[in-house]
Design a protein that fits this description.
Number of helices of chain A: 4
Distance between the termini of chain B: 25 Å
Number of strands of chain A: 12
Low-confidence stretches of chain B: none
Number of helices of chain B: 5
Shape of chain A: globular
Structural class of chain A: alpha+beta
Mean pLDDT of chain A: 91
Number of strands of chain B: 11
Radius of gyration of chain A: 16 Å
Radius of gyration of chain B: 16 Å
Helix content of chain A: 10-25%
Mean pLDDT of chain B: 96
Strand content of chain B: 25-35%
Distance between the termini of chain A: 33 Å
Shape of chain B: globular
Structural class of chain B: alpha+beta
Largest interface: A-B, 18 and 17 residues
Largest sheet of chain A: 9 strands, antiparallel
Helix content of chain B: 10-25%
Oligomer: heterodimer
Chain lengths: 201, 204
């Protein structure tokens, strides 16, 4: 899986780790994650996949699919290195979905929808640079902390502390191509608080 | 006082009983839609005044729209007069006759503007002592293709709306608030602006 080799460079990883840790909440967007021809091939494959509707009227409405290549990437060496060296998490478990948001799709904040704290990742296979809705908003009960806007070929990470919830903003009729993202969570068994150093917590 | 604000065709006893019957038997839950409900000149003046109010944009998971504060704080004469009419004993008593609900003399009232891409997803309004939700439509020329319809859903199978109400100028909609009163406002599909004044009538 040909990812952008910049993200395998030790110096760049160290710098990205520093940037990630400086944000509140901790987050980073890694642009141009895959080499362009590889990204386009993967994108094409995902867009052609058969999606199933996932709908609960007061929780979510979007489509999901599965793709072997995405699973291989997320379980593979490169993703592992990025998570370990940029996010500072090793020996993690992950779960994810490949989600498609068409006009009229959304997810809602919901009291019963409480995720355990962890690190979210969003790997974006969308076609359009501009989106109408479809951003992921991170909230506490009091305020909005962050919005992750759709960006083709970007891999974003967001540290989600206790009490932080998220929703995907309703996508409006102005959206041309659907927004397609791999959205997942990483749950650390052990964390590294800075580049390669173990944390006590 | 009622005659000063309401189209007289809605004020005779026979019509009131008909509306009440329609309200109670309506599907998926009690509601009515009354066209040309208020006296036109009053509503035109109200519309003009409401558009001069300050609207605040609000984007959440459940909705995107602009709204005013409660209009009780408005200093515009046309709005003050409309507010005091809607919260009057006479009008609340008429709503009681229309709906067979026991109400108290308490309301709230806000104006909302929905523009392109704005929407309000499923919810039931069931909060505190809200008994009857009301909406007065103040936009001209809305058709089905424009979006902005009030959609009423069956709470057991909320997939397709059971009823869709086009926001016609000067139509007045009321529905009974309960766990069953699942409704939404369809996304606005073009540059039309959907202006409403609405709120709730309260009970004990």
């Amino acid at each position: 899986m040909a990812i952008n080799t910049l993200y395998l460079d030790g110096g760049i990883q160290k710098n990205a780790n520093r940037i990630y840790n400086l944000q509140k909440p901790k987050n980073i967007k890694l642009e141009k994650m895959f080499q362009q021809p590889v990204f386009l091939l993967l994108q094409e494959k995902i867009y052609k996949s058969k999606f199933k509707l996932k709908f609960h009227f007061d929780k979510y409405k979007y489509f999901v699919t599965e793709l072997r290549e995405v699973n291989s990437f997320l379980r593979g060496r490169y993703f592992n290195l990025i998570v370990r060296n940029i996010i500072g998490v090793k020996n993690y478990k992950l779960k994810y979905e490949i989600r498609k948001f068409e006009p009229g799709n959304y997810t809602l904040l919901h009291d019963s929808y409480k995720e355990q704290p962890g690190t979210d990742f969003i790997l974006d296979f969308s076609r359009d640079e501009r989106s109408y809705g479809g951003y992921i908003a991170y909230m506490t009960k009091r305020e909005e902390l962050l919005q992750i806007k759709s960006a083709p070929n970007a891999l974003s990470f967001v540290k989600r502390d206790k009490g932080v919830m998220k929703y995907t903003k309703y996508v409006t009729h102005q959206q041309k191509n659907p927004i397609i993202q791999v959205v997942g969570n990483i749950f650390a068994k052990k964390s590294l608080n800075s580049f390669g150093k173990k944390s006590d917590s | 006082m009622l005659h000063e604000f309401i189209n007289k065709k809605y004020l005779n006893e026979k019509e009131i009983k008909k509306i009440n019957k329609r309200f109670i038997g309506a599907e998926p839950y009690p509601h009515f839609v009354l066209d040309n409900f208020f006296i036109l000149s009053k509503i035109l003046r109200l519309r003009k005044a409401v558009l001069r109010e300050k609207f605040e944009r609000i984007d959440k998971d459940l909705f995107s729209f602009s709204h005013t504060k409660d209009l009780i704080s408005s200093e515009k004469e046309e709005i003050k007069s409309f507010y005091s009419f809607v919260s009057s004993k006479e009008f609340i008593s008429l709503i009681e006759k229309f709906t067979s609900e026991k109400l108290i003399q308490k309301i709230d009232m806000q104006a909302h503007i929905f523009e392109r891409g704005d929407y309000l997803l499923f919810h039931d309004d069931d909060l505190e002592e809200r008994k009857i939700a009301y909406i007065l439509y103040l936009s001209h020329g809305f058709a089905a293709k424009d979006g902005g319809k009030l959609q009423l859903y069956d709470a057991k199978t909320p997939i397709c709306p059971v009823k869709e109400i086009i926001p016609k100028f000067n139509s007045f909609v009321c529905f009974k608030v309960s766990k069953k009163s699942l409704h939404a406002v369809e996304e606005i599909m073009n540059s039309k602006q959907r202006l409403t004044v609405g709120g709730w009538f309260y009970g004990d």
